[in-house]
Amino acid sequence: MEAHSSEVFVIGLTVFFLACIIGYYVVWSVTPALHSPLMGVTNAISSVIIVGAILAAGPQGFDTSKIFGLIGVVLASVNIFGGFLVTYRMLSMFKKKTKKTKEKE
Amino acid sequence: MVAILYLISALLFIFALRGLSHPESSRMGNIFGVIGMVIAVFTTLMFKSVLSYYEIGAAILIGGAIGSFIALRIEMTALPQLVAAFHSLVGLAAVFVAAAAFYDPVAFSIGKVGSIKTASLVEMSIGTFIGAITFSGSVLAFGKLQGTISGKPIVFKFQHLINALIFLLIIFLIVLFVINQSPTIFWTIVIVSILLGFLVVIPIGGADMPVVVSMLNSYSGWAACGIGFTLSNNLLIITGALVGASGAILSYIMSKGMNRSIINVVLGGFGGEQDTSAIKDNSDKIVKQGNAEDAAYIMKNADSVIIVPGYGMAVAQAQHALREMGDILKKEGIEVRYAIHPVAGRMPGHMNVLLAEANVPYEEVLELDEINHDFPMTEVSFVIGANDVTNPAAKTDESSPIFGMPILDVEKSQSVLFVKRSMATGYSGVDNELFYRDNTTMLFGDAKKMCEDIVKSLSA
User: ipTM value of the model?
Assistant: First the structure.
């Protein structure tokens, strides 16, 4: 069992470093004008931590762990909805401006 | 099956970031991100151990409603605060998930209560530690950005030594926790980490917040990674690493924009009032003052104008009036462009969003290295709410705190208009010699009011 768990850890570590490298290249390719939306999106996706919260909240009945899990689900949901929506709002402003400029006046 | 669905979700997240390489592909990217998240959530709900759909559904609805409400209502000028607040939630969520895993290890198949696997304990406590720091650091950053807490750096004796000692204490606590798995020690780690988060952000001044916000962005990613390792969940590890890398790169770009190392920013204490006495007395120098009509006249007779917006524009909410001014000038056949310094505003890319909000086409908004060589060919630079990022002392005065910082070469344009509230120095506390040049006209007043007045004069 111990040998197995260290193997799992090494696999996790492999995934981790490869993901860091992908992250490095992908993020450098983001245009500086969109750095704010980038923060919005990363904020939303980092709340994928909701996966852990759902697992904790999953079992029936009520115990400490379930309550923690449910709190985690609420917090992460705030972020997921908030993060994606605020990014959506930002990005819809970066549309090509043609005749739209008149609307505001 | 689960692993494959999680993999798809992770790939969609990568595409979501990739989409941001261009405004046109970015909206699709955001949709990829949403799909990825939906897949991740539903895949997890399909787990055999997950049975309480109602409670979870209700929790998602509550959180979702709050998040949507805030995201739809928030003013774009307040984006930095919002992002800081959101980061704090990720950090807190990480702490709760780690706590849940500690109290019910069976649900995560990492052992039984009292005999959790050592590796899981280490990963769990690291996730908790980073999560708690992210939480309190972000709360404080939020306060500083919102203005609830003074943006001035708070510095005291032995600050860094104390932080270092607290860090060592946390390591000691983690070791202890791994050995005896005591809930008391777990919560002690949480509390001490929260304290450390506060102490780390406290010495950092308001205008260094772009770096702090990016750094906390990065931390929130590493916290997710820590939880990912605890649960042996590749999706969490990949996403956490993406976010961590993203935040780290943004912090790097921001510190570079100030010609300071990340370490220097983190140690803090920059800005504020300590060096006011060192400023050369410029009271005898002559400043040419102008009003809106002068500015309108100068710009109307130019062929090209570059607008340099800074945080002051955001504070005054002047972006709409500014765009109106730009529109009139364009109608007159004048070339109008916007130059954005990397650290303009309170978060990376903040100015771009504000200008986009005001309907400025993004093709007209250029980054420092794209536009800097055009200043010598430009007749008028219109600097609104920016100061330090135009200060030639960054190039010439080696003793200046901002020496070496990349600046926008507005000094090379034929004339410079400065919209400012007063002669006060910028965040760095350094005087700007540009104010005293012959070809500079100072326009004192509120940025928004000034733009509106210029618009009036232009249309008259």
Answer: 0.90
